Structures are given as structure tokens and as C-alpha cells.
Amino acid sequence: MESQIRTIIVDDELLACRRLEKLLKEDKEIDITAVCKNGVEAIEQIHEKNPDLLFLDIQMPEINGFEVLQHIETDLMPATIFVTAYNEYALKAFEVHALDYLMKPFSKSRFNEALGRVKNIIAREAQSNIDEKVDQLLKFVHNDEPLSRILVKSSDHYSFLKSEDIVWIEAAGNYVRIHTSSKKHLIRETMTNMVEKLDSNLFFRIHRSTIVNVEKVKELEKWFHGDYKVVMDNGEKLTMSRNYKELLDRFS
């Protein structure tokens, strides 16, 4: 038997979760690996289970479906079927950019149609198509709106970190380490993605492994060979490479 499609359901409505579970259990190709009642649980389970397919409700409290996807790295992005009660106008975005969607309440035939379509995409291993579709949809919905908060894990729970509280960010292998005035947070993300997600008016890359919040910069000191030292308001000194001089324009 071929490997099953690892699937996660995310919906804050219990009845909606149960219906999706019932329909999915009728398909022997599907393996339901998790059922999540909110976006925070979804992010945790996606990182832990690395699913192939996600049934994702959009309108959820605290963190919505779009924000869930914003917190998932490209290499972990599953094929996604959105479950939504959005109005007809908003659905145009899904028709153009989404892999597929289910409009609540949906029929069994519509469910099977969406599932069949996405299963074909997964079978063709068109991961690049999946990534592109999700990225296009997020850009359409948010209109390139930068992240105002980031989900971070502290011991055994998740919490939100306001982007304005970030002092600087450093690369740490396949992760980034976020420095605030009092804590450090390690999250699985790339420096390139962080630059793209954060407000470009506030966050500057000063080195291939360093991003700073310009509001937390105290001063710049000339260093050797055209480099500078960036002095943060907490006293830390960071090296700005000659290849990353955009910050100078802000201080000139």
C-alpha cells in the first residue's frame, strides 16, 4: 500500500471538525494526524507532524488561518484546502490564488471535488506550485502587510511577540534567534523570509546574519575596512558589513 496523505484539520467549530473527520475517514488514502481547535495548535502540529494536506478554517479567534500560514516555513508548507464563510467577493481571491476552498456549509460532492483536486496536485509532487499558490494568496489578502507579531515558543507554551519589541535578529543555522530587551527566542525561519515578512521601514539587514530594528539603534561607529559597528540601545554592538549600507541612509 502506498503511503497515506498525512492530514491535519484546523477549525474552532467542533461540529465542523467532526464533519471533516467523518468525510476524510471514508478515504483510505488519508491519514488524519491531528485535529486542531485553534491556530496556535495548528502551527505547533504542522511543525511536529509535517503534514501533506491541511484543511484550514480562516475565521478563528486570536490567530486566523492566514496568520497560521505566515508562520509556516516554505519547506513545511502543506497543500491547503481553505474552509471559509467568506462572502462572494472575497472568494474571488480563492478562485484565483488558492489550491481549493470549501464554502460553509458545503456538500459531500463539493468536498470530494476539492479533495480530489488537491490529491492530484500532491500526487504530481508539485510542491513549487503549492508554495506559489499559498504565497500569492497571502500577498493578495494582506496586500504585503508586514507581520505585527510573531509566534514564539517559551518552555512548553506559545506566546505572541510584538515585532516592535524586537531589538535584533541573528541567523542560527536553520533557525533565527530573536533578541528582545529581556529575552531570546529561537524560531525555525530563514533570514530572507524574516526580512520579507517584517516592516521594511523598521527592520534593516546589516549583515548576512543580522537584522536590526532601526528604532532600537543608538548610533553607528566607523570600524575597519569600510565596516561599521551598530550600537543598539541595550548596549550591544553589531557589525554592519560594507555590503549592507541601507541603514546609513536612515542616519544620514
UniProtKB/TrEMBL annotation:
Supply the InterPro entries for this chain: CheY-like_superfamily, LytR-like, LytTR_DNA-bd_dom, Sig_transdc_resp-reg_receiver
Q: Does the keyword Phosphoprotein apply?
A: yes
- What residues bear 4-aspartylphosphate in this entry? 57
Question: Where in this chain does the record put each HTH LytTR-type domain?
Answer: 150-252
* UniProt lineage: Bacteria, Pseudomonadati, Balneolota, Balneolia, Balneolales
Q: What is this protein called?
A: Response regulator transcription factor
Q: Which Pfam families match?
A: LytTR, Response_reg
Q: Where is the Response regulatory domain?
A: 6-119
Which keywords are on file for this protein?
Answer: Phosphoprotein
